Amino acid sequence: MINTVKNWGFVVLLSFCFMSFAMSQVAADNAISFDELVNLIQNRTYKFNGEWATSQGGRRVKLIEDSNYVIVNKENTIGNLPYYGIISTGGLQNTSEIYFQDTIFDYRVTVKAKAKKIKVKYKVRSQDVLYYVSFTTFSDGNTLLSVTSRVSNALSFEGHIVVL
C-alpha cells in the first residue's frame, strides 16, 4: 500500500514537472525579445493589456483582460481603463473610467539597456482633461502604467505590452 502511494505521488510530481516545462516553453515561444520591445515602443505600435489596478490608497483590483487597455498607434492613442479613485473637481461626466482617444504629444522614450528597462512618457487630452501617461516596461514585457491628471488621483496598472 505504501509503495502504491509513493508511486502515485511520483507520477503526480512528474506530471506537474512536465506541465510546468510545457507551459514555460509556450510562454518562451510567445515572448518577444527586449530589442523587439524597444522597436515597438520607439515606433509607437503597441498595446498595453491591463491585468491589475492599484489606487493611491493601495487598493488592488484584478481586471478583466482585453477590456482594459492603452493602444499606441503612431501619432494617436486610445485608452480604456477603470477608475477607482476620487475626483477632485466637478463636471466630469464619466467617473468610473479613464477614457481617451486623441493625438499624443510630448512622447518621450528612455531605454536603459543595461537594466533592460524602457520608460515612456506622453500626454493626451480627453475633452477638458489632460492625462499624463507613464509606462515602465521590463525585458519580459511586464509593464507598470501610471495615469495621472490634475482632476483625479493617480492610478497604477500592471500588465503586458503586446504587438498591435
Keyword list:
Lipocalin; 2 helices; single chain; 164 residues; 10-stranded antiparallel sheet; alpha+beta; 23% helix
Tell me what the structure shows.
This protein is of the alpha+beta class. It folds into two domains: 1-30; 34-163, Lipocalin, CATH 2.40.128.410. The chain has two helices and ten strands, in the order ααββββββββββ. The longest helix is centred in the first third of the chain and has 29 residues, at 2-30. The N and C termini lie far apart (56 Å). Residues 8-29 have low confidence and may be disordered.
What's this, in brief?
This protein has 164 residues and is of the alpha+beta class. The chain has two domains: 1-30; 34-163, Lipocalin, CATH 2.40.128.410. 23% of the residues lie in helices and 47% in strands.
How much of the sequence is in beta strands? over 45%
What are the low-pLDDT stretches, counting only 5+ consecutive residues below 50?
8-29
Characterize the largest beta sheet: strand count, sense, and whether it forms a barrel: 10 strands, antiparallel
> Could you spell the SSE succession in H and E letters?
HHEEEEEEEEEE
User: What's the N-to-C terminus distance?
Assistant: 56 Å
CATH class of the largest domain: Mainly Beta
* Helical amount: 10-25%
Note the quaternary state here: single chain
Q: Which outline best applies?
A: globular
What is the averaged pLDDT score?
Answer: 80
